[in-house]
Amino acid sequence: MEITLEKVLQFQPEEQTTYHFLVVGAGGTGGYLLPNLARQVSLSNQVMKGQGLRPHTITVIDADDVEEKNLTRQNFIPNDIGKNKAKVLATRYAKSFGVPISYIEEYIESRMQVYEYLQNITSSVFQNPDNGSVKQMRVVVIDCVDNTKTRHFLKTAVSNFTRCPTDFISSGNEERAGQVVFAPNQNIGNKLSLFRALDKDDNKLIVTSSRATFPNPMEIFPESMRPKDKLPSEESCAEHAVSAPQNIHANMTAANIIFGFVNKLINCEPISEMAVFFNTSNSSTKTYFAKRSDILNLLTIENPKNPYMTSFLSFKGFIKEFGEISEEDWTALTDARKELVKESEEAVTVRHADNIDSPAEGVA
Question: Which pTM value belongs to this model?
């Protein structure tokens, strides 16, 4: 039996990189991520110090205070009630692991606000030269929020931030199921896009590059380009009190998957995973790698309980990356897009596939 191997793109983290992790959201997922993240950063910083390099740092952003109802699912204790979530976690784990963790007690209200955070973070890292040298720096923005509008601000700010390479890790979950998306190099020029790498006419089955970029959450979930939910600060007290049900296992699972990406980044291990979907009700996970078949498989994801799980190939800007593809692949794409247009009111950025003659001509 003949076995056909598929070409895969890998993102390769670079050695001697100083990371700053910006964790947005200190509730269900963020609260379980932070202890593991702080422990990993503490261990890595010992190595960085021995090499004379600037240590990794962490910032946590959340305006919410701990409430009694949070104790059933989130990583807090009764003594935390009434205190700011970001402050509680940053203080606790900075002290426990000896890691520089700052906190910001604010809601994110705009893209410019996130942009200013990124500017301030990078400026502070390059200050104080006595604390080690900075050979190269990266910011990793970790989205642990449950608000689509906030997520949109994060992604657009990251795309426009040019001071240093920035990676984006985005998580989302409902009561039992969810996903984590890893999107490296969201803001650098001369990126090695997924399909340009896969379409190269060579014999390499694995294409590894520090310039590799994968689809971002806005491309995977195009309806989030037009978020309809309110910002946390816009909600009434009654609206704020009512939250979508989530299970502690789902939050812990999302946090562990995020940590898996962080662990690979810090340890300079190649990453070929674009997204991981999970369902804790049956202990299942599905990993999508940076290869053509997994891109097409993502087209078929349907979960009526989760409006975010739709095809990212409906996003017109991403289709430009395809270039020349097979007739079979293009038929699969157009059929999936027809269904998306028919079923989703949010598919406003998509032209109806009936009007498309070719990939190049069908995109405005």
Answer: 0.79
